[in-house]
Every structure is written in structure tokens, then in C-alpha cells.
Amino acid sequence: MYQLQQLASSTPDLQCRTYYLNLGLTIKDVKPWSIYLTQRFPNACRIGMASQRHLSNGCVKSSGVTLILSYFERSHLLHHTAPYDANQAEQSGEQLFAPFLAQNEPDQPNAYIVLVDSKEALQDEFFHISKENDLTISGGRAGIFDQDNSWVLYQDTLYQNQAVAVGIVGQYLSQQRDAFVDNIAIGRRMLVTASEGNIIRQLDHLPAQQIYQRYLSNGERISLSLANRFALTTVHNNVEINAVPLSWEKDGAIMMSEALPEGAYVKFLYFHPAQSLHSIVPKVQHLNEQRPDSIFVFNCISRTDFIGERPSSKLSLLNQVSPLHGTYCFGEFFSTQFGTRVMQHALTYLALSESSNHPKGEIEPIQLPDESDSLAPMFNLISNAFQDLEQEHASLASPTSNASNNDWLRDLQTGLLNRFSLLGRLNNRQDTAHLAVIRIRNFRLINQQYSYNTADNLLAQLAHYLKRRLSTNAVGIEFTCYRLSANEIAVSIHSQIAPSKVFRLFRHLAEDIESQEFSTIKKAEHLLTLSLSVGLASAFDLKGNPLCEQTHLLIKASEARRFAQIHNQPIYWNGNLPERTTTEENLDWILKIRKALENNDIVAYFQPYYDSQTGEEIGAEALLRARIDGEIVSPALFLDLIKQTQLYAKITLAMLAKCERILSTYPKVHVALNLSVLDFKHYATLKALRQFFKRNQVNGRLTLEITESESIQDYEWISPIIDEFRAAGALLAVDDFGAGYSNLEKLIALNPDILKLDGCIIKTIDKDEKLQKLVEHINNLAHSLGIKTQAEFVHNETVMQKLVALKIDYLQGFHLSEPLSEADWLAQHDNIQDH
Length: 835
What we know:
Layout: E1 2-5, E2 8-11, E3 14-22, H1 27-40, E4 47-49, E5 54-56, E6 59-61, E7 66-72, E8 76-83, H2 89-101, E9 111-116, H3 128-133, E10 137-141, E11 152-154, E12 157-159, E13 162-169, E14 174-181, E15 183-196, E16 199-203, E17 206-207, H4 208-217, H5 224-227, E18 230-236, E19 239-243, E20 245-248, E21 254-256, E22 265-271, H6 277-290, E23 294-300, E24 306-307, E25 310-311, H7 313-321, E26 325-329, E27 332-336, E28 339-343, E29 346-353, H8 375-394, E30 417-418, H9 419-428, E31 434-440, H10 443-450, H11 452-470, E32 479-485, E33 488-493, H12 499-515, E34 518-519, E35 527-528, E36 532-538, H13 553-566, E37 571-573, H14 583-598, E38 602-611, E39 617-628, E40 631-633, H15 639-642, H16 647-665, E41 671-675, H17 677-681, H18 683-695, E42 702-707, H19 708-713, H20 715-727, E43 731-737, H21 744-750, E44 754-757, H22 769-784, E45 788-791, H23 797-806, E46 810-811, E47 820-821, H24 822-834
Parallel strand pairs: 9-10, 23-26, 30-32, 36-37, 39-41, 41-42, 42-43, 43-44, 44-45, 45-46
Antiparallel strand pairs: 1-3, 2-3, 3-7, 4-11, 5-6, 5-26, 8-13, 9-13, 10-27, 11-12, 14-29, 15-16, 15-22, 16-17, 16-21, 18-19, 18-22, 20-21, 23-29, 24-25, 27-28, 31-33, 31-36, 32-33, 34-35, 38-39, 38-46, 38-47, 39-40
């Protein structure tokens, strides 16, 4: 069976793509067709290729000729051909795409259709150039079993061992693609011990037919039609090969659709059309809503997804969108952000439209074919069981471990491998290129409102969603999922992929997950959404230089995740983390701060805040500084390090002492002091605070500022202590509201006196109308609860006027006053008192 695909143009302004498909024609027989098309469409781009079957107007044809003409109104075509050399696949690809990439950026194609004739399985290296240039490629390898008669057409010439590419360029061109895969790798690995060309003779030193009979029918002879559903899959020289049985040989060997080399390890690949049928309905429905002008399908020759000429399963679904035209290939091309893959046992499509902004009208819902099949879940079960066994084996803490019970490597609640398993893999197998740590930020709230079982179930749902998304061939990466803690999942990536592409993958995953609805255990109608923070760590940087030892990936990924949450970002990468100081530098900082404490060089700077309506100063926030070698140093350089030592408590006590002295000396001054949860958990600090309030009647002149994220996490424990200090006259301010996950329920229960709006939602309020609305709503909510509001990061006049108009109570920022030394700030109050 043969297929010829062509692109044509009848006029310079009206581009016409022509698909010509035929069966049983030799190269000699096809020649008259190429001559005719050249005469009929002399200005067209005419391409095509040989194939066993083709799709014509929604029907599957095994004979005849099909011609498809496609007209572009606002797009134009670029095209080129180049020889294909299997021994120099990467160089062949570069030669094919070089003329396209040499074009100016406006003339770079939006999408490519590529056709290749090759007597061997096409190598992914052919598309290596697509990884560096993000090319969107569809197409396939010419496929007939009589490979000596396989060919591709370019203009009026028929080629063998040649590649043809057509690039579609258009400002208004929109394209959608997807790949549907119906295969599952099942069972253990088997060694090819004897093969010759496409004939496989022995597997594990047994006749190949005997292996098929042993595993598929307990030793009974099986039909070829049944065996055709079970290909053998392997990866050889970085090429995925899926070989389908074509005929039984008399000596017990099997003729396969692809050559499997001796020494290769293979697995059974089960092909079942109904396996993923229900899961693709939303994708096809979305495609239907876009109303594409045309859909071109590239289907695997091994897929028997038709009865007679009538398509079944996925072809039937796609036909509801638009009558299909396309071909059956010996390898389908599909692009993702990680480059272009040569796929097998897959259906890929390219949907094009130049009228995406036109009214779509009523959309008919896609009707799911009534195909009930109990085998699909069963094979999914078997496949997942073998995958779990392989991942567990790869994650053993010691490569020579002979432990008979490895339950300690698995989390019993979710079925995922656990932290010990991950650490074992990181320490013993040098195969992890990237590690992502994903945390559910609202996990505590879910625990409290729905129970621990519900929260655990949601984590399992999240793990299932991640595994399903990452295991699709549209992504094509090797990965393993782990449960790290109550609300954290880790995903290790074992493929050598650029960090920027892995970063985009997990950023999109996080966005998609936060838009998903997850159900509770007891009531399906209770749907919850998850809020995530993601940290990604890579072993190598963007230039391929070592960035992190594999054994440190978990530490770096967790550090990146914390950084993402602190800075209110969905994901952060270890390559962008601030440079960490060395051990020697850390010790040096500890010595410097200890010396500063001894010499009374821990100092306070004060940044005033003002009434937004009167401009009157209300008070000032005490800000930590240190005098090091005669210079005033910001706490950003040392505070995170010092929090890990006993010096942090001494710093808090020093700042408290400075505030006490000022409050007692200046009876009308108001001061705000920053405290963390660490201060309330430290016995000496807590004792000092209680003694402070016994000695001083602050009467609302001292405000304790507590970071919102910290206070909510420890609300039940910290709330009584806060109530004790408020009863003694202190005010409570929740700091950094809006910087992280803001739990309004706990905020209301905490009932602070002041809500400080973080700079991240204030600094661009003069340019972002959405932030204006957000601040307005927060302000109205706070006022309705009797809570005053204070805005940080007031850095220009426009921002200040916006906040004044919104009637935020207090304003603070460099536009009003930068932090002042204690002497300068108190001097202002002395002048006021003198007057």
C-alpha cells in the first residue's frame, strides 16, 4: 500500500496543499502522477510518500488514490529536501532544516510537515535540531513492508532515503497537536539472543514463537492477529523500536516489522485501542471547540483502528470534529518542549486554522463510542505493578541489598516510594538529572476542615495526576514519584533534559493542578483546589556545567521550594538561588555577630509610618541592623544563618531592650517590634517578654509584628500567648499579608489590630488594576472586622495617592521616610517636644 502527500499552489496569493494517496504503485507507476500534478499545479508545493493505508474523508482506505488540496488565504509555504543518512542522522536533520532557520524571524515557519523515506527505524537524533530551536514538527516515515519500493515525492521527483519538509508561515495561523498512545509495556525484560534482519529467532535462547505462546497462551499456539497486538519494544542507540509480528516462520522464528538487534533487551508492548479512549475525550472536545479548518492525521501502521473502511475508537472521535485526511506511517513525528520524537503505536494529528478569531457558533458535544472493555484496566494494573517493582529495585539503598521485605521503602497510605527510597537512589545510582519537590500549601487547612484521611487521599490523587501527566508520550521523560512528608511529593527525572524545559514543564503542571478540582473521600460533591509551591533542582546548569551533586539534589530542591513560597512564586530553580556562603564564611559571620553583641553593636533603625489622611506620624518600626567593621549591615546578610544558632535569641533580647528604653524615655512614642515564631518557642525569649510586660505599662504603644505565614501555621499554639500580651497592652500586627498563602479564617480568629499589606501587592498598584481591586477588597474586609490596614513599600507619589484614595489607614515606605538611625529618629521627636 502506498500513500503520496502533496502541497500545491494554484496562484501566488492562494496556497494549496495537496495530499495524494495510492495503493500498490511502484515508483515507476507513480511517476505519471507526479508528471500530471506538475502540469496541473505548476506553482504548487507537491509532496507525498508511500504508505500501506491512508485516510480519505474520514474513511480508512487500503487501495485507490486520494488527492487533498488545501488552500491558505493568509499563510505561505517554504519547502526543502535533503538526503537522509541513517549513519549521520543528526547531520541529515541539520541539512534539512538549515534553509528554514536561515530565514528572518518573521518568516520562520509556525509548523512543519516532514516526510522521510528510510529502510531503517528513524533515529530521534534526526530531530536534535528541534531541541535547540523549538520547532513544531508533524509527519511520519514512509511505510510499506516492501521497503525497496518505499519513496517520498518532492515536486516532480521521487526519492528514496530522502527527507522532505514543508514549513507553514503565517501571522494568523494557529495550530494544535496531540499524540494518542494505546500501548503498555508489560512484563519482564527478555534478551534477543538470535536475530537476522527483521527476523527474530530467539528470545532468552528459546524460539521466538515459543516465547509468544508461553506468555500469551500458556504454551498453546496463538493466532497472528492476536500476536499483532503485542509488539516487542526496546531502545537501541537512543532509538525507540517497536516491532510488530508480521508472520510466523516455519523454524519458530517471527518476521517483525522492525529489526531487533541481538543483545537488545525487549519487553512486550500491548496495543489496545480502548485503553485511553475515555481520557482523550476532553482533548478532542477542546479541539472541537476551536473549529480547525483542517486536520491531518499520522497514524501508526500497526493500529487496526478500523473495521472495513469504517474507523473506530479515536479516529471516530476525531471524525466528529472534521473529516480526517492522513496516512498510516512506520513512525510518527511529534514535538514537545523537549524536542521531536519518532513515535510508534501512536496517532498524532496537526489541526490548522486561519480563522481562530471568527465566531464559532454552537458546538456539538463529542459523543463517546460505546466500547466497554475490561482488559484495559487489567493491563493498566499489570503495567503499574511492574513499574512499581522496577522503581523499587532502582531505589534500594544498597545495590547489593538482599532484603526480602522492602515495605520500609514505600508509603503505605499512597503507595508511593518514600524518602528513604529516594535517598537510596540519590546515593547509589547516578541517573537523576533533576528533582522537583511539590508541596501542598493549604494541606493544614484541608486536614482541619475535612480530616487527615481526606488530606492523605488528596495527596494520592495529586500523585496519580502527576504520574498520568508525566507518563504520556507527549512528554516522554523517565521519572519516579516519591512521598517525602505529609504534604510533599518529589519527582525525580532520569532523562538528560535542559533545565529550562523541565522548569517550564513543572510550572505548567503547577498551573494546571491549581486549576483542577479534587474530590473529598466522603462527599464527591465537595471539590477542593490545591495551592502549591514547587522547588526544582538540577545537577547541571543551562550550559551543562555541574551545578549540584546528585546526592544534594533533595536539599537544593527543598531550598528552592522554600524560596518559592517565601517570595510568593509558584516555582523556583536551584540555579537561580542566591549564592550561598562557604562554611568558612558562615563561621566568620557567626563570629562577627557574636562580637557585635558583646560590643553593643546590634543597633536599631526606625522607619516611621503615617496616617494616610492627615500625614501625621503614628509610630515607627524597629529594624535590625549590625555594625560590622564600622559599617551598618543589613540583616539580609546574616539573619537566616543566625536563626540556626543561639545568637538569634540574644539579638531579639537586644532589640527588645532598645524598644523598652525608648518607650520609657518617650511617653508618646509608638514602636513596632518584629517577632518570629522562633521567639515564642525560645524559653528565655518568652520569659523576657513576660517580664517586659510586667515592668512596663505600654498601653497600646508597642505593636508586635508577626509574619502571617508563621503565625497561621502555629496558630493553636501561639494564640494564647498573643492573647496574654495583648491583655498586657500590646497591639498585634500581622506582617507580610499577601506574600504567601493567606488564611482568612485564621486571620479572623487571630483578630489582629493591624493588617500590614506586603510590598508584593503594593509596589505596582499604580500600574495594575487587578492589584488595586485586591487591595480594595482586603481593606474593606479588614475594616468590616475592625482591623486597621497598613501598606508597605510606598515608593512613589502615585502609589501613595492610590492608597490614600483607597483609605488605607497607615503608609510606610521610602517615599515617606527611609529607615533612620535611632539618634536621627529620636531627634525629630525632641524637636517636636521642644516646640
